[in-house]
Amino acid sequence: MKNFTPPPRDDIVRIEGIGVKREGRWLVRGVDMAIARGEIVTLIGPNGSGKSTTVKTALGIIRPDEGRVWRAPKLSIGYVPQKIAMDRSLPMTVERLMRLTGRHSASTVTAALATVGIAHLAQAQVHALSGGEFQRALIARAIIGKPDLLVLDEPVQGVDFSGEVALYDLIGAIRDETGCGVLLISHDLHVVMARTDTVICLNGHVCCQGTPDTVAASGEYTALFGPRAAQTLAIYRHEHDHAHLPDGTVRDAEGRVSFDHHAHGPHCGHEGHDHA
Amino acid sequence: MLESFFTRALIAGVGLAAVTGPLGSFIVWRRMAYFGDTMAHSAILGVALALFFSFSPIAGVFAIAVVIALLLGFLERRGTLSADSLLGLLSHSTLALGLVLVSLMPHVRIDLMGLLFGDILAVSVTDLVVIYGGGIAVLAVLSWLWRPMLAGTVSEEIARAEGFDPERTRLIFMVLLAGLIAIAMKILGVLLITAMLIIPATAARRLARTPEQMAVYAALGGVAAVLAGLWASLAFDTPSGPSIVVAALGVFALTSALPTSHKEISR
Q1: How many whole angstroms from its chain centre is CA A256?
Q2: Greater confidence, A90 or A7?
Q3: Domain boundaries in chain B?
Q4: Contact A125 B264 (CB under 8 A)
Q5: What is the pLDDT of residues A247-275, one digit of tens each?
Q6: CB contact under 8 A, B209 and A121
């Protein structure tokens, strides 16, 4: 195994040294990123750190002022943007929304809606959906065409915590099933880390990047998010045998509720963070 | 059959309504009402220039409307004034410029009321050919571009990310709108064209569950307004263009008064 070389990456998107300038200010600069087939890449960073800008540049929505963007030829993309401002004057059923950018059979539509758990809402008006339901509908729309690259800009907006875990599990399952690349944006660290291959920590430039473990251990990461964030990350790397209740307490797998954030169930593999 | 001016008016109006319905739906969805209004107002300038350089008024109206749309896009991108202010600026200055230009041509006698409010009862067989030829062309392009246009209306970012070109579709949409204004001006006049784009579409909103339904209902509502309006203008000797718009308002009032269907409330 001495001469082991890593298998060549099957990249579908690469950006190199991109910079985007608005009104004389660099929103991002010198950002490199690559997404391979079957890889889940998560961008994290504080508000205004250029996560959405980087993603939009990679997708060709924004033209960079410097640097290069490469996408595999004929790459099919499913995109869930951060915001959608659909005028209320536009009538739209959930079912019709699934066919926004491509033709799909009725059974495909039903299957995509069932995947995100809203098959019963197929005939509902999009404007009548709750925030979480709308988000699920947008995710169903993005995955319906089995894209090569799935891009989700803060996909858990308006989704409650248990739904959040389920959504990230779903994204992981879709990747496992279709082998697509996934690019995620998250402004917090939550569950996303457990399902991620590569984390890129952004603050106008790439602060650090690597597996969730190496990023969490890096000084840049702690400097950007503070030591508490690193702890939070450690918590979320555990098996999810406990739930965080709205009042800040934690309920473990046995149903015990405690106020101590570090009280974990017996199945919880502690990876060396001490309970001082 | 085409000998009767009233029959010709009916045929012209129905053909026009079939186009304003779908096109107007997009105007409503994309919140472009004032934009359409501005393009229509610029038609006066188009007519004046056409008279001045003696070419076809339809070509003049079309060309000026396209130029105004491009100019607006350019000024918006330079970006110190809001789109709203720019529209106000262009809308009224092109209208005024056109009227001043017309008055400077003493040898030209022009029916100002006809320009502003249209004269559907003066439609000739040639006009019918233009309306139907142009109208079919506009609808053909619209149906060809339907999916990318709709995707761009829901989210330009999704449309672009998933392989469409929203800027190009927006440009083509403006050209279609300019084309419609050019063929509709004689019937409705520059001040009432926007009404036939907006009112039937808004009337259709309550009844429609999908974008396609709304476009079809808007066309049907517009046709109903043309029939009712022309009948009323004959019966009460009222001006035809405004009568059609008042009838469209009646259609809107009618659909607004309908009880909300249970489908709309329940999921």
Answers
A1: 30
A2: A90
A3: 5-256
A4: yes
A5: 444 445 444 444 443 334 344 333 334 34
A6: no
